[in-house]
Design goal:
This protein is of the alpha+beta class. The protein has helices at 15-39, 54-70, 101-105, 181-190, 200-208, 222-234, 262-270; strands at 2-3, 6-7, 43-47, 50-53, 75-78, 82-84, 91-99, 112-119, 122-130, 135-140, 145-147, 150-152, 164-167, 193-195, 214-217, 238-240, 254-257. A hairpin with a 3-residue loop joins strand 5 and strand 6 (82-84). Helix 1 packs antiparallel against helix 2 (54-70) and helix 5 (200-208) packs parallel to helix 6. The longest helix is centred in the first third of the chain and has 25 residues, at 15-39. The protein binds D-MYO-inositol-1-phosphate (IPD) and calcium ion (2 copies).
Length: 279
């Protein structure tokens, strides 16, 4: 059967039902994050700069409970509890209950709930909710991407020099030689502007909405990319690793762009690193 240009086999659940569940779960978890933001929360350290709060755990529990209620056999990969395998289901929900924990912990309102879904290993839908701005980004494979129900599309910026780019840095920035500072310096000298928002899932959604022209990062996790990658793809964007191969959310590296500046971004990412400028 063909639905919205996507072939549905008999073991598949209608995409609308899946998306409605993802949206409901994101909204419930978003309300929990706002509540914790108002009433306070405990913070624990995974490492000196990698935090986790009560809100991360409560939001994750909420998303999993809500989805499980509808789909008890589905599998989960969630940041705080890892893999939860109920059965050999072809459905895997990939969840970041709070993307932007550092922002959240500081009261900086740039964080989101990110809920993506893989079917037989392919990301087929995503819902990303920014509860502070009440912005809900959604996409289903073959049906375009939306912000609060309205279609969104990537930008039409053609040149790197006119582009607003965004990136992020992993929590092992102090120890890892792959700390992204080399790429940051190169892009800062070539782009029109650079931002570091602290929420990779929102960075992807902003590429989808044309607010950023390109985004790259070197050490992301599947839950940072799952939902946002579908949203970028459905908004007409391009997603690869640094070699230009199709994105795998398990591959850590990500380049997302409006397509026009993609090749130029890959060229910069693959340039030999010369001496870092000294102060
Ligand atoms: C982090 C954010 C940040 C990115 C880090 C992620 P978290 O996720 O997405 O923007 O630079 O690589 O780990 O810890 O806030 O869920
Ligand atoms: Ca994250
Ligand atoms: Ca997180």
């Amino acid at each position: 059967m063909l639905l919205f240009g996507v072939t549905i086999t008999s073991d598949q659940i209608p995409h609308n039902t899946l998306l409605e569940t993802a949206i409901a779960a994101s909204k419930e978890a978003g309300a929990i994050l706002l509540d914790y933001g108002r009433s306070g929360f405990r913070i624990k350290h995974k490492n000196p700069i990698n935090l986790v709060t009560d809100a991360d755990h409560a939001a994750e529990q909420c998303v999993i409970d809500r989805i499980r209620k509808h789909f008890p056999t589905h599998r989960f990969l969630a940041e705080e509890r890892g893999r939860v395998e109920q059965s050999p289901s072809p459905y895997l929900w990939v969840i970041d209950p709070l993307d932007g924990t550092t922002n959240f912990a500081h009261g900086y309102p740039a964080y989101c709930v990110s809920v993506g879904l893989e079917y037989q290993g392919r990301c087929i839908l995503g819902a990303v909710l920014d509860p502070s701005r009440d912005e809900l980004f959604t996409a289903v494979e073959g049906r375009g991407a939306q912000l609060n129900g309205q279609p969104i599309h990537v930008s039409d910026t053609m040149a790197l020099g006119s582009s607003l780019l965004v990136t992020g840095f992993a929590y092992d920035i102090r120890e890892s030689p792959r700390n992204n500072l080399d790429h940051f310096v190169k892009f800062a000298l070539k782009a029109q502007g650079m931002r570091r928002t602290g929420s990779a899932a929102l960075d992807l959604c902003y590429v989808a909405a044309g607010r950023f022209d390109g985004f790259w990062e070197v050490q992301l996790n599947p839950w940072d990319m799952a939902a946002g990658s579908v949203i970028v793809r459905e908004a007409g964007g391009r997603l690869t690793n640094f070699c230009g191969d199709d994105l795998s959310i398990y591959g850590q590296e990500l380049v997302a762009s409006n397509g026009y500046i993609h090749q130029a971004m890959l060229k910069v990412l693959n340039e030999e690193t010369s001496q870092m400028p000294s102060s």
